[in-house]
Amino acid sequence: MTREITSTIVSALLLSFACCEVNALTPPLHFKEDTVGFANMTVFEYENGIAHVRRGESAKQKRYMRRCFVLCRTTMQFKKFARFDPHAPPLNDLDLAERIRQVTRRAAWRDTLPENQRVVFPGYANFRELSMKRGYVLQRNIGYGWPTYWRLSNARTIFEPGVEYQERTREKLDAILNRGDLFVAFLTTLPHLRINHAVLVYAKKPGRSPDVDRYFVYDPNHPEGPRELTWSKSDRSFAYQKDWDFVGGSLRVYQVYGVWLQ
Q1: What is the pLDDT of residues 109-147, one digit of tens each?
Q2: Would residue 262 count as lying in a domain?
Q3: Using an 8 Å Cβ cutoff, are 131 and 97 in contact?
Q4: How far apart are CA 172 and CA 182, in angstroms?
Q5: What is the DSSP letter of 205?
Q6: How far apart are CA 20 and CA 148, in angstroms?
Q7: What is the DSSP string of 240-261?
Q8: Residue where a domain terminates, one of 89, 116, 144
Q9: Would 46 be classed as within a structural domain?
Q10: pLDDT digits (tens, 9 = 90+) for 190-226
């Protein structure tokens, strides 16, 4: 009898721990606290969304670039797997680098960790403060940009260019946001080269429109504030806002970092 009672208690405890793991939710993302404070620099110079080859001193400037996918993935990982303790002393560069790699080695699509299992970053109130004050350490420990060009899932831009795939993507986007998770979006106009870029969609804008759904976006090229992605029900297509690095208008969206090999 004692053995049966003990077994029941142990089973209940294990179940409760499992439920804690499964039920851990990704907290809402706050742009000024949870995104990177420095910019992903562009390879080209832009004027009204049109790319031009850099010349002169601009071409010689050392830039942190080709990291839009990396910064979106890292922002997602820090939101799900890290926490901050502003009251403790900050780490030295070596120890900080190891903590950063502990976060980025964990696949972005894995379940959000409970607070007591997250990697702790002492000395900073949030991810943005860390990225602003220790950006050089962060940049050197979150990965290179070139592997994103060789992701197997990039083939979808050729083999899944149709409207039906975009409709399924929009449905998946809404489902992910509704359960409180984050969605890294590959934006492209291939075979045209107006945009090939990654952003992090983190919330649906409040308010209802009969035809257009609007989404808040973290764009690594624009750390100063959120951008807007839209879905037109009548056109059955996504569009991205006009800015200095994009002419604006329709494009296709593909989810990345949602599952293995994506």
Answers
A1: 999 999 999 999 999 999 999 999 999 999 999 999 988
A2: no
A3: no
A4: 11
A5: P
A6: 33
A7: E--BTTB--EEEEEEEESSSTT
A8: 144
A9: no
A10: 999 899 999 999 999 987 788 999 999 999 999 999 9
Provide the percentage of residues in the chain whose pLDDT is more than 70. 84
Considering the domain architecture, whether residues 90 and 172 belong to the same structural domain is answered as no
Q: Which two tokens stand for residue 83?
A: 């926490």
Q: How far apart are CA 201 and CA 2, in angstroms?
A: 53
Question: In this structure, are residues 153 and 136 in contact, taking their beta carbons and an 8 Å threshold?
Answer: no
Q: Range of 99's domain?
A: 68-144
E strands, the chain, in order: 45-47, 50-52, 82-85, 119-122, 183-188, 196-204, 212-218, 227-232, 237-240, 249-256
Q: Is the pLDDT of residue 15 over 70?
A: no
Question: Quick one: tokens of 234?
Answer: 């009548």
DSSP letters along 101-154, please?
A: HHHHTS-TTSPPPPGGGSEEEET-SSHHHHHHHSHHHHHTTS--SGGGGG-GGG
Look at residue 12 in the predicted model and tell me its pLDDT: 41
- CA 90 from chain centre, in angstroms, equals 25
Q: How far apart are the first and last CA of the chain?
A: 51
**Cα dihedral: 232, 235, 240, 244 (round 10):** -130
Instruction: For residue 58, give the 3-state DSSP assignment.
Output: helix
Are 139 and 188 within one domain?
Answer: no
Instruction: Please check whether residues 154 and 114 belong to one and the same domain.
Output: no
pLDDT at 64: 82
Domain-embedded: residue 103 = yes
CA-based max dimension of the chain: 83
pTM score > 0.90 for this model?
A: no
Give mean pLDDT, residues 12-33.
64
Encoded tokens for 114: 């409970």
220's tokens: 């690594």
